[in-house]
């Protein structure tokens, strides 16, 4: 029997004078801190330190997630009660859930790196160390550095930095099968899963889907990444840049591999690491300023959003959602 998910309880706040982010000097905010204690960089000690630091000048409640979807429901509850901000402390999956819960509301999203890669956090310029990033985040909160940014949406689910269809989704699925090792091993597990998928489990002989990108048809897709930001990901300290045209201030960028051979992927990796992005070729299609993407195939294909594997599907509708989310920009002072 499938166990019902526990419903998140609404945090109780002290009566305070409300001050809205972005309207001037910030003196006191109502903040919900959502913590994924299973994330690789989250510990009981740094959770307490983050809470204490935020609570010095603001009214802060802490909640912890323990099931998939919890962070979204916590965020939706915070938005429905008009909280000023939600701070997401976890990995990219936690961030994705919180952004999904806050999209379309006036409650701002702030974030701290708690995972193994932390792509979106690092894209904004935050340090990859949670305690260093905390200083940057608090400065951004207290100076009202908040702006509305765009998100992507795939079959109704939002994504912050990218959607992956095909090969990388198969890699993520393998990583999630070994989720118990992810906290201990980190990025080497992704490398192992990428090699296993490439040589053993992912079919590179036949296309996996067809695409219609703002009405333009691509019949043979092996692997597609829909970018809302750049870089696509990080390997250690090194960004993997697929397209400099991708940013939160612009529409989507769609990178599609029409061939998946070892030479193509080696050239891709070199260009992504050394040249700052890919160029369109007979093997790679690149579309910029994209509003809508339809991906279809009779046989199911895998997809992932922000590094979270969501299963296989035969149809995927992706669209650009402008000004969907209020985002706290960190203050980068060093």
From TrEMBL:
Q: Which GO terms describe its molecular function?
A: ATP-dependent diacylglycerol kinase activity
Residue stretches making up the DAGKc domain: 53-158
Q: One cellular component GO annotation, for this chain's record?
A: plasma membrane
**One Pfam match:** DAGK_cat
Q: Which InterPro entries match?
A: ATP-NAD_kinase_N (IPR017438), Diacylglycerol_kinase_cat_dom (IPR001206), Lipid_Phosphate_FormReg (IPR050187), NAD/diacylglycerol_kinase_sf (IPR016064)
The name under which this protein is listed is: Unannotated protein
Q: Which organism is it from?
A: freshwater metagenome
């Amino acid at each position: 029997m499938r166990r019902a998910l526990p419903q998140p309880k609404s945090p109780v706040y002290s009566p305070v004078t409300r001050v809205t982010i972005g309207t001037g000097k910030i003196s006191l905010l109502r903040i919900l801190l959502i913590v994924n204690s299973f994330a690789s960089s989250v510990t009981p000690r740094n959770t307490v330190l983050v809470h204490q630091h935020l609570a010095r000048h603001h009214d802060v409640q802490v909640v912890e997630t323990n099931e998939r979807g919890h962070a979204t429901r916590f965020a939706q509850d915070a938005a429905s009660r008009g909280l000023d901000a939600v701070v997401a402390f976890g990995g990219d999956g936690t961030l994705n859930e919180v952004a999904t819960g806050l999209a379309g509301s006036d409650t701002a999203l702030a974030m701290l790196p708690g995972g193994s890669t932390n792509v979106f956090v690092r894209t904004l310029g935050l340090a990859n160390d949670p305690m260093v990033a905390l200083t940057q985040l608090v400065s951004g909160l207290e100076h009202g550095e908040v702006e509305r940014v765009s998100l992507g949406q795939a079959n109704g689910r939002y994504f912050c930095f990218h959607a992956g269809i095909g090969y990388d989704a198969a890699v993520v699925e393998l990583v999630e099968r070994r989720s118990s090792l992810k906290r201990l091993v980190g990025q080497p597990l992704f490398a192992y899963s990428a090699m296993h998928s490439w040589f053993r489990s992912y079919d590179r002989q036949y296309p996996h889907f067809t695409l219609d990108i703002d009405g333009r048809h691509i019949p043979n897709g092996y692997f597609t990444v829909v970018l809302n930001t750049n870089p696509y990901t990080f390997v250690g300290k090194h960004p993997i840049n697929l397209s400099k045209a991708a940013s939160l201030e612009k529409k989507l960028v769609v990178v599609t591999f029409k061939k998946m051979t070892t030479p193509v992927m080696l050239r891709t990796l070199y260009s992504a690491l050394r040249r700052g992005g890919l160029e369109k070729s007979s093997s790679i299609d690149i579309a910029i300023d994209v509003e809508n993407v339809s991906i279809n195939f009779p046989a199911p294909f895998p997809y992932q959003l922000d590094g979270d594997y969501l299963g296989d599907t035969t149809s995927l509708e992706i669209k650009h959602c402008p000004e969907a989310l209020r985002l706290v920009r960190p203050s980068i002072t060093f």
